Amino acid sequence: MKPHRMRMTHALLAHYGLLQHMHVLKPNPARDKDLCRFHADDYVSFLRRVTPETQQDQLRQLKRFNVGEDCPVFDGLYSFCQTYAGGSIGGAVKLNHGHCDIAVNWAGGLHHAKKCEASGFCYVNDIVLAILELLKTHERVLYVDIDIHHGDGVEEAFYITDRVMTVSFHKFGDYFPGTGDIRDIGFGKGKYYALNVPLDDGIDDESYQSLFKPIISKVMEVFRPGAVVLQCGADSLSGDRLGCFNLSVKGHAECVRFMRSFNVPLLLVGGGGYTIRNVARCWCYETGVALGIEVDDKMPQHEYIEYFGPEYTLHVAPSNMENKNSRELLEHIRVKLLDNLSKLQHAPSVQFQERPPDTQFLEADEDEDNKDERNHPDSDVNVDCERKSTPRRVKMEFVESEPNHKNHEAVDQVAREVESTLIDSTCSKDSIAAAEAAGLPYVKAEESPENVDVEAGPSGMDQQ
Prior knowledge:
- The protein is of the alpha/beta class.
- It has one domain: Histone deacetylase domain (Arginase, Chain A).
- It is built from 14 helices and eight strands.
- The strands form two sheets. It has a six-stranded parallel β-sheet with strand order 2-7-6-3-4-5, sandwiched between helices. Strands 1-8 form a two-stranded parallel sheet.
- The longest helix is centred in the N-terminal third of the chain and has 20 residues.
- The N and C termini lie close together (about 10 Å).
């Protein structure tokens, strides 16, 4: 999760010439109250206060909030959280205002964080915060996760609502975080709105797409989301230090290309990825996919070129590892999940009379502040491009069941407040404020090869 990945990605974007087709923006950091729309006040307060020098005096809280081992304390921890969360919330704000149709925050995608604890290198769940922002405007939001690890934090947060559907494609079994069974489908009103695609080692591009495309096609048909969040964790690539899948960069990016084809407002976020040269390769190529630009395989000269030898190419061939996902297993998963989706004949209903107050735009265009910063490789990136949403139908579904986690209650309460605002046009200021400090401005972009308006986001993350 080191920001060096973002610097390398940004360098590739700059030297491939992709930045000239987008606006690079630097969002304001998310504030305490923005983070507390999902996270507990005392947890956010702890993240703000704790430092490497003071952590030994807070051992009880370290244990309580699961901070220490795979989520260590480091200098600038809270600023790091504010920056990546601000990027994702700000991208959602721009989508809500119709200022862009694709927004990208490669610094985001930290999908394991819970309401009251850190988990799996994730401290603040920027995805949940972005989805809550999107729910201010959109009746339904779809979350799709292609990280090798199960998107447990996001699924858990929205497990009892029918306004958010979560779909996770992940390694299942004796593997972190150990959740994501195909039988985990949601509770109460959220029953059948959680889809888990449990996979085994060595899955390749063809096998992956044999599940991804039919499942996502059915999800889009049945759920009809107003917006989509796609977590593009690159640890599902072949050769990742912590992964065990065998996807190529093009195979991984095919998921982005497919989601883009639905012409629904789309937020792309990063996630895992621990062979950093391949992470940068992947996210550079996927930025090109978002722009509608096919980038060359031969890599241009840039300041990080030595990381990519000896090939100095964007694409790396998959390995010859065994694919343990048999055709029978893949067919069983496909049939089971399509059957679950068939139980949702129509999309859920939400009375949608008036939108809650918008998050204000407080951010200036980074290009206007400093023309040279636009192509500076040491900053992080958000991208947007123009799309049109699809029409949608609605229906309400009720299923009796009991939620079993406090995270559900936290998000359900916020969702109820948002829904109440949509229906009554009245809601407390605190309940509707999501990320005023993280708002991104709108500046009309230049035309790309497909007449796509593109912008790009957070920079300046120098935490090692």
